[in-house]
Amino acid sequence: MRYSFSVILLLTVGPLLSAVGSTAHLYGAFPLLVTPYTAEAKLDVDTLVHEAEYVDRNGARGIIWPTAGEINDLDALGEYEQGLTALAQRWRKGGVTARLTAVCCGTNSAMALKRAAFWEKTAKAHGLETAILARPPDDAKDDADMRRYYRALAATVSQPVIIQTYNGKSPQPSVELLIELAKEFPLVYGHVKEESPGDKVNGRIAQLVAAKPVIKGVFSGWGAQGFLYQGPRLGTIGCITQRPAYTRLLARMLALAAEGRDASDAELGATYGKFLIMTNLGANFPTKNHGGDMRGPHLMVLKRLGVFPNTYNRRRVKGKWVAEEYVLSPREVAEIDARIAYALGR
């Protein structure tokens, strides 16, 4: 199934739709930023802002920070609010177009709602149209728990919320609940990052897309590994993944799919292949104890691109945070440079 004319029209007039605030449709590449650290194992705020500018410049429609896995540590150190405030301050200056999107989740509803309230206040104080990515609270047990949480969230914020369906702990919200919430709160809900595990994800995407226009749009997750099928065939209109270094490839993939191209198209296939060549670095170089597959060698890519000044990860050792640099051999760096030259044109 190719994209309908209405979706192609949406991608054409999207910048105009953004002027209507909470009713705006969200689509396109929404990369999660990779969190940069200093040698003192602190959030590198300046580099975070520089990274966001890079992602915006390379065609992102949205920019998301931080990841759910690091949010509790960032918050405990005061860096969650520090980083989001710095991004809001930069966006207030203008010259950027991507929609800042804050991850507002928590181990329980109260924690998640507190973070959402902060982002709502920050966005209004800076005069920004923003968004939220909100997976279910970790302690949710069923649809009833999630219904109460998302209703409370809708009473807390006025900006669009992308519901992420999987957090690795609680059950996924049912498709019926997602549609119910979109009907009940059309100015807040209706966008979904669908990445339920295993073989559930494609079936759920098809159900959600069939519920348009109540469901405004569905984003592919899981590192965009399924996008070549999920976009052209199932109708996802965006990707949410922690792949900021490859924003230009993501944006081009989405634009080509929106034109009605599929896996048989040479340019779409080649662009997707370049994306996979870059993300495949995690299968070639060590990632364990180096921040996982979303960091590891991709930190070196960001450094070689001039986005990051270093390749630091951080971890807690004997109760203290320490920074550890991700180091590769000259031969391994040469491989990364060769892939950058081929896939990213540098």
Order of helices and strands: HEHEHHEHEHEHEHEHEHHHHEEH
Which geometry do the CA atoms define? globular
Low-confidence stretches: 1-21
Distance between the termini: 35 Å
Question: Mind telling me the C-alpha Rg?
Answer: 19 Å
Structural class: alpha/beta
How many H/I helical runs? 14
Oligomer designation? single chain
Strand content: 5-15%
- How many β-strands, per DSSP? 10
The largest β sheet comes out as: 8 strands, parallel
Report strand order across the widest sheet: 1-8-7-6-5-4-3-2
Overall pLDDT? 92
Question: Helix coverage percent of residues?
Answer: 40-55%
Give a structural overview.
There is one protein chain. This protein has 346 residues and is an alpha/beta fold. 46% of the residues lie in helices and 12% in strands. It has 14 helices and 10 strands. The strands form 2 sheets. It has an 8-stranded parallel β-sheet with strand order 1-8-7-6-5-4-3-2. Strands 9-10 form a two-stranded antiparallel ribbon. Strand 5, helix 7 and strand 6 form a beta-alpha-beta unit.
